[in-house]
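Handout, section B. The chain below has 126 residues.
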Amino acid sequence: MKFFRLIGILAVAVGIAIFISVPAWANKSETKIEAPQTAEKGSEITIKVTVTHSANSFIHHTEWLWVQVNGKEIDRWEYSATRLPDGATFTKEIKYVVDGDLEIKGKASCNMHGSANEAVVKVTAK
């Protein structure tokens, strides 16, 4: 009987150790931005923001994504257990009128592990 109790305690300890170490194996939400390097002043450009994250379930998912141009937030998406992203990898497109040189930033965050990066792209106005 003591043997089975010892096996049970070891199994629980191993389970706890694995559960605690899972964040080390998990990936964070990663953001990539695509935009032209140059654009005519007054023209409209398309900014593509792609988020990659290994999970997309009600328990574990990308919880938000934002995009800024020259320090001002121009769009934001919020996700939840009942309103998930389109997939583990998804893309959002934004139309933006070039009014000068642009610094575009994008960031997404996993609800459990945070963000892998803040993507930055610069567009030079001609």
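Note. The longest strand covers residues 44-52. Compare this with the example in section A.
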